[in-house]
Design goal:
Number of helices: 10
Oligomer: single chain
CATH architecture of the largest domain: 3-Layer(aba) Sandwich
Largest sheet: 6 strands, mixed
CATH topology of the largest domain: Rossmann fold
Distance between the termini: 33 Å
CATH superfamily of the largest domain: P-loop containing nucleotide triphosphate hydrolases
Structural class: alpha/beta
Strand order of the largest sheet: 6-7-8-3-9-10
Shape: globular
Number of strands: 10
C-alpha cells in the first residue's frame, strides 16, 4: 500500500465531561474516497472539524503527506491542499456562479499584493470555466448564485471546493437537502473528479460524511463507522454491510 495522504492517530476531544472523540485513528490513501458514517452524536463532526483546523484536539496527531498539520489553521490547510464543503451552503448569493468559483480560489493564489496586479479574474477564469462545464452548470454561469435552486447552489458549493485543485477534500453531507433525483448526479460527478488527475498527475482524495447510506455505499472505497466517539469498524462497503456489530448498532438489523 502506498504512503498515506492523511494519517489521524489517537485523536481526542472533550467538552467538559463529554468525550466527543475518544482516540480515533484512521488513514486515507491517495486517490481514495473515504466515507464516515454514524448516528448523531457519534463524533463525526468533531473529528471532521479537527482535521480541518477549526477546533484543536486535546490529544492525538494529524499528518498530511507525512507532515504534522494538527495545529494549522483552515487557511494554512487550504494553502497545503485541503478543501472542504459545508452542510449549510456557503455560496455568495449576490455574485454570479463564475465569480463564486473565482473568489473561492483567490486565497489559495499567492499574496494579496500579487492578486492586486493579476487580471480581473485573478487569472482563474479559465479554471472556473472548466469546472463550470464539468459540473454541467454552464447555463447558469452568469446568474447570481442566490437565484439558483438549492440543488444548483449545492453543485456550485462543491465546485468552489475544487477550484484550488486540492489533494484532499472533506465533504460534509453533500446530499443534505438535495432532491433525490440529483443525488445520483452528485455521486457520478464526485467519481469523475476522483478519477481525473490534478495538475500534479495525482487524483484527489475525499472524506465524505453522509447519512444517505445508498450514496455512501455506492461512492466510497472504504467506510469508517463511528459510535459514541470511537471507531467501531473500517472496511469496504461489502465488509461494512456484512459486519454484524455495525448492523446491530447502526444500520438497524
Amino acid at each position: 500500500m502506498s504512503a498515506s495522504l492523511l494519517k489521524v492517530t489517537g485523536l481526542k476531544k472533550a467538552y467538559g465531561a463529554i468525550q466527543a472523540v475518544g482516540g480515533v485513528s484512521f488513514e486515507v490513501q491517495p486517490g481514495e474516497i473515504f466515507g464516515v458514517i454514524g448516528p448523531n452524536g457519534s463524533g463525526k463532526t468533531t473529528m471532521f472539524n479537527s482535521v480541518l483546523g477549526q477546533i484543536t484536539p486535546d490529544a492525538g496527531s494529524i499528518e498530511l503527506n507525512g507532515q504534522d498539520i494538527t495545529k494549522l489553521s483552515p487557511l494554512q490547510l487550504n494553502q497545503r491542499g485541503v478543501g472542504r464543503t459545508f452542510q449549510t451552503l456557503q455560496v455568495f448569493g449576490k455574485m454570479t456562479v463564475r465569480d463564486n468559483l473565482i473568489v473561492a480560489a483567490q486565497e489559495h493564489r499567492g499574496s494579496m499584493w500579487s492578486r492586486m496586479f493579476a487580471p480581473g479574474d485573478s487569472g482563474l477564469g479559465a479554471k472556473a470555466d472548466a469546472l463550470i462545464d464539468q459540473f454541467r452548470i454552464r447555463h447558469v454561469a452568469d446568474k447570481k448564485a442566490g437565484e439558483l435552486s438549492y440543488g444548483q447552489q449545492k453543485l456550485v458549493d462543491i465546485a468552489m471546493a475544487f477550484m484550488s485543485e486540492p489533494a484532499l477534500v472533506l465533504l460534509d453531507e453533500p446530499c443534505a437537502g438535495v432532491n433525490p433525483s440529483l443525488v445520483g448526479g452528485i455521486s457520478t460527478l464526485l467519481k469523475e473528479l476522483n478519477g481525473k488527475p490534478r495538475a500534479d498527475g495525482k487524483a484527489a482524495s475525499f472524506i465524505v460524511i453522509e447519512h444517505n447510506m445508498d450514496f455512501v455505499m455506492d461512492l466510497c472505497h472504504r467506510i469508517m463507522v463511528m459510535v459514541e466517539g470511537t471507531v467501531m469498524a473500517i472496511g469496504t462497503p461489502a465488509e461494512i454491510r456484512g459486519n454484524r456489530q455495525v448492523l446491530e448498532a447502526y444500520l438497524g438489523s
